[in-house]
């Protein structure tokens, strides 16, 4: 049976009324599209406040049974509302036709809005590696997390300055390439957010199994969500689905192509 999977990210509920309205529009659009499953890869809230999480729960209640979420760095600020999204570093979710690993890439330093970078330990890599072995054959294997595993262009002037100063704020996750090398050939999709421009990288295949690393971007800003059609562990098609009018003229970052990965 063919199923549909939507990937959204970086809602930033609580930033301002326009953002909240756009996030609600995303929910209604995905309901109208009747997607089977939805991945939300962090920064659900803007300030990590309990009131913002309450607003998210109310707005996205109609999608609750289809929704899988991981926390982002913004969710760890304020009241640390992100603790309501995930309790363990790595959690496994089984859905019809799909095996999903939820990886929490946030860390205590994310309590500070300046320290937005993520954390990936040797233990995290080992846990994901072991969990992938549990995936049954003929299912789409997905790893979802907030922070990016590969280098990406910075979002705006503050991140460019932090790069010049050698700060880690805009850096990819440590051990990111190592993790990709461990799951390549056994995983089909890595879905993440954090960077507000969307993009996709297709990694060099082992055998006939391709690994797609997908950044959803900020869905309320872009006004669209990536949707995958899959069956028996294979991606059949991919397209963008309009959710709300785009708030910025930002173009997608990244493109399909080969990327070397350390084993």
Entry summary:
The protein has about 260 residues and is an alpha/beta fold. The chain has helices spanning about 15-35, 50-60, 120-130, 155-165, 175-185, 220, and strands at about 5-10, 35-40, 65-70, 90-95, 100-105, 140-145, 190, 200-205, 210-215, 225-230, 235-240.
Describe the structure.
The protein is built from 6 helices and 11 strands. The chain is α/β, with parallel strands linked by helices. It has one domain (3-242): Purple Acid Phosphatase, chain A, domain 2. Strands 4-5-6-7-9-8 form a 6-stranded mixed β-sheet, with helices on one face. Strands 3-2-1-10-11 form a 5-stranded mixed β-sheet. Strand 4 and strand 5 (98-103) form a beta hairpin. It is globular and about 45 Å long. The termini are far apart. The relative contact order is 0.18. Mean pLDDT is 92; it is low at 249-263.
């Amino acid at each position: 049976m063919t199923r549909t999977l939507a990937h959204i990210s970086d809602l930033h509920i609580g930033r301002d009324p326009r953002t909240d309205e756009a996030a609600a529009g995303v929910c209604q659009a995905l309901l109208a599209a009747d997607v089977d499953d939805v991945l939300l890869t962090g920064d659900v809230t803007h300030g990590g406040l309990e009131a913002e999480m309450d607003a998210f729960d109310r707005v996205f209640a109609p999608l609750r049974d289809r929704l899988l979420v991981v926390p982002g760095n913004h969710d760890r600020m304020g009241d640390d509302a992100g603790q309501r999204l995930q309790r363990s570093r790595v959690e496994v979710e089984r859905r019809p036709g799909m095996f999903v690993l939820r990886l929490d890439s946030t860390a205590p330093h994310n309590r500070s809005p300046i320290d937005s970078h993520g954390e990936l330990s040797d233990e995290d890599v080992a846990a994901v590696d072991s969990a992938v072995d549990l995936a049954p054959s003929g299912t789409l294997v997905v790893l979802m997390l907030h922070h990016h595993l590969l280098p990406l262009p910075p979002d705006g002037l503050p991140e460019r300055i932090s790069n010049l100063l050698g700060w880690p704020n805009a850096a990819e996750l440590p051990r990111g390439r190592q993790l990709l090398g461990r799951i390549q050939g056994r995983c089909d999709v890595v879905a993440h957010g954090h960077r507000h421009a969307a993009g996709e990288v297709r990694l060099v295949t082992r055998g006939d199994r391709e690994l797609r690393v997908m950044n959803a971007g900020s869905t309320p800003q872009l006004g669209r969500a990536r949707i995958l059609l899959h069956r028996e562990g294979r991606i059949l098609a991919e397209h963008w689905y309009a959710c709300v009018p785009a708030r910025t003229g930002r173009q997608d970052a990244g493109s399909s192509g080969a990327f070397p990965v350390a084993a």
